[in-house]
Structure of DUF4349 domain-containing protein:
Amino acid sequence: MSTRRSVRPVHALAGVLLAAAVTLTGCGANDTGDSSSAQKAAGPEAGVAQPAEDAKAGAGASGSKASTAPKPSVNRIIRTATLTVQVKNVPKALDQARTATENAGGYLSDETTVRDEDSSEQTRVVLRVPVDEYDDVLAGLQGAGKLLERTAKAQDVTDQVVDVESRITSQRASVIRVRELMDRATNLSDVVTLEGELSRRESDLEALLAQQASLKDRTSMATITLTLSEQPVSAGKEDDDPGFVDALAGGWDAFVTMLRWIAIAFGAVLPFAAVLALILFVWLRLLRPRRRAGRPVRPSESEREEAERV
């Protein structure tokens, strides 16, 4: 009997302790709920107090997550080439190059045609072709005539593409964070500050998107600058021995040049010669006869002797 009586108080004590623990737990939960509800109630004031810091913290967290993103399995490479080809007929070769580019899924982005003093035509075109068709189109273009010059470059921009994509992800998260803060803001000064911050971050995001589009275009489409000429663009200085025809042509050019200079000199002297001729004519026809008429006539020696004899 004594054993049963001693066991009952122990069970009673355990029940009391369990009830106290449950009570304490409930109070702690209520305190936590009250504190969270208080934070929610004070959210518009307390949460907007440091909008820039919260947005930067969110952007930093997103940036750290995006920086760990794996690199793409395909390398991003910008391919460019420059060709100079001598052909017999520039318009025909240009049509063939345009057709080959369009058949490959590309297009002609720029064209410049000039004609030199010898009536030789020269055309410079910029072609954009898909990267997969780059080698085939390049081989076809350089086989259209005599290849004078070729330059090909390949620039790997995989790291740059990954960096831009990561920054875009971070910037988008930052813009979303600032918009959330604007929804919670009630103070006018905080709203104005957040609007300026949102405008700046959206502008940065647009710049990153434009950079991403440019990288995508340059890595997906190769650029080929093609120069078609009927004569070598930069002919070497090869001095061949002159022949009879060359000597005859040179002599004729010298003779024509001499005649031209003589004509120029005659044209320059002609006005002065005309004035001198006019002065001489006036002197001989008008002035000189008058001077002779005004002078007395002197007898000759024979007349003097006859006069003295008489």
